[in-house]
Design goal:
Largest sheet: 5 strands, mixed
Number of helices: 9
Bound molecules: adenosine-5'-diphosphate
Shape: extended
Number of strands: 10
């Protein structure tokens, strides 16, 4: 016997396979093995649970398979029942979390090793009587400690937003005002590098239903990146426009640009473009958070266009909220 869900999942038709050994029915050796195992030992009290992987189509899915004997009240053995619960999503989450822990450890290891090495050299007296070298060692320790602090702050921020601890408070606001606000706050950092920020905002009122704090962070983060990865004297242009039933804003810079092979990884946590890593300090967490805020929290879309040596455009598209 099998229910229709089992037939669909394991791709068999009950009427055609009735009476055949299980291994000929399901193209899932792991499942057949669990069932056979119980069948052979079956004495009316068995129950076994195992996580198994079954390839369906060309996708491996994970199931929690519970296989147990079916007995009546005289303990006569009637057969075996197998219940499959799809745990693919849980497995993927486990894998992501393990990957994350491993990435975090990797990121923290380098600055920590450097702090330890320079602290040891100072303790061993390697720079005794040489204040300049002492200062250099202390500077390295400070820079590396700052880097770890940035990483931890970034991760805490991300964890709070991604786990939903930070309450999302959406309201209809003017996109232009949001962009202007963000650009204004980033003005001093741009001025420090003699970079101009030009506004080319739509003359229309573009309403968006967003959490203003979060969306301001997106604006500021994109402008901050544009400043970081653009050489002194460059130009940043912020634009907004209406495209069909969506609004878009973009931050364009005349900076370093992003190599084509880096594009698919750009929004991954901790990913930093090798060629640009020495241009400015960073954690590789900013764009991952930006994408999360735009796409998961607000149902928008983020896109990038870039040319090495010429500059980049980061474009955010959001649903338009019409005024009633
Ligand atoms: P980071 O903290 O390293 O700036 P992000 O996640 O914000 O991390 O960005 C990831 C990487 O993408 C950066 O390290 C940088 O190499 C590249 N990048 C981001 N924005 C730009 C830009 N406007 N121009 C060139 N490269 C950029």
């Amino acid at each position: 016997r099998a229910n229709p869900a089992a037939e669909r999942l394991l791709a068999f038709q009950l009427e055609k396979v009735c009476g055949k050994p299980i291994r000929q029915v399901v193209a899932a050796p792991a499942l057949a093995t669990v069932i056979e195992h119980i069948t052979q030992r079956g004495n009316g009290t068995q129950r076994h649970t195992e996580e198994i992987s079954i390839v369906i189509g060309d996708k491996p899915l994970w199931f929690k398979a519970t296989v147990g004997d079916v007995v009546d009240n005289t303990t006569e053995h009637l057969g075996i029942i197998t219940v499959l619960r799809d745990i693919t999503q849980e497995k993927a989450a486990q894998a992501r979390s393990a990957e994350f822990v491993s990435a975090v450890s990797h990121e923290i290891k380098t600055p920590l090793a450097s702090v330890k090495a320079y602290a040891e050299m100072l303790a061993d007296g390697d720079a005794d009587g040489d204040p300049e070298t002492q200062q250099k060692f202390l500077n390295i320790i400070e820079v590396q400690t700052d880097r770890m602090t940035r990483l931890l702050d970034g991760m805490l921020d991300m964890a709070r937003i991604e786990s939903g601890v930070v309450r999302v408070d959406k309201k209809i606001v003017s996109l232009n005002e949001l962009i202007e606000g963000g650009a204004k706050l980033m003005q001093p950092a741009a001025a420090d590098k003699n970079i101009s920020i030009e506004s080319r905002l739509s003359s229309l009122y573009l309403g968006v239903n967003v959490d203003s704090d979060m969306m301001s962070r997106v604006v500021m983060n994109l402008i901050s990146n544009a400043i970081k990865y653009t050489d002194a004297g460059g130009r940043i242009t912020v634009r907004s426009q209406l495209i069909d039933d969506r609004v878009a804003f973009e931050v364009e810079d005349t900076g370093r640009g992003i190599p084509v092979d880096a594009m698919p990884k750009l929004f991954q946590k901790f990913y930093r473009v090798k060629e640009n890593a020495n241009v400015a300090p960073g954690t590789g967490l900013g764009l991952s958070l930006v994408k999360h805020i735009v796409e998961e929290v607000h149902g928008g879309k983020i896109e990038v266009e870039s040319q090495v040596g010429k500059g980049s455009i980061f474009r955010v598209k959001l649903p338009l909220e019409r005024m009633n």
